[in-house]
Write a structure and sequence with these properties.
The protein is an alpha+beta fold. 28% of the residues lie in helices and 44% in strands. The protein has four helices and seven strands; from the N terminus they run H-H-E-E-H-E-E-E-E-E-H. Strand 3 and strand 4 form a beta hairpin. The chain is globular and about 50 Å long.
Length: 146
């Protein structure tokens, strides 16, 4: 395998190995492990309520995932699907923001190139506090847990 100019030299891993590392880093909230498997020019394309923005590079990953990997973060739901060029990860999580418990759901479409993560597209529900969750259960109760 020939590493592209934006890849970190010496990376020889299969797509399945890379997918396993990516999923583990995302579930465990380990930004260093995630950066370790990401190209230096990794594109982060984030779609959050009322906003979309793109960032490039490891520093951008560290900044953006500071909000994903909140203190006390616990993944309460996960679904993983391998794609032809990467992995799709659905996560439900809780964590603390400003001392208040919040819950959110994300879909992460992660693409690989030359043995590294090259693109990470994330769609986030936004953060729901306990009052919003209670209101949702009254006004739009879930039919089933996944």
């Amino acid at each position: 395998m020939t590493a592209g100019p934006a890849s970190l030299a010496g990376r020889e891993r299969t797509a399945d190995e890379l997918a396993q590392k990516v999923v583990r880093a995302m579930v465990e909230g380990d930004i260093d492990a995630y950066i370790d498997v990401s190209a230096t020019d990794v594109l982060l394309d984030l779609v959050v309520p009322f906003w979309r923005y793109q960032l490039v590079g490891h520093d951008a990953l560290r900044l953006a995932f500071a909000e994903e990997f909140l203190p006390g973060r616990e993944v309460v739901e996960q679904h993983v699907t391998r794609t032809a060029d990467g992995v799709l990860i659905e996560l439900g999580a809780t964590g603390l923001q400003d001392g208040q418990r919040v819950t959110w759901w994300d879909i992460h479409h992660i693409r690989f190139r030359d043995g590294d993560v090259s693109e990470h597209i994330a769609y986030c529900s936004g953060l729901l506090d306990d009052d919003q969750l209670r209101r949702q259960q009254v006004e739009a109760p879930w039919v089933r847990q996944r």
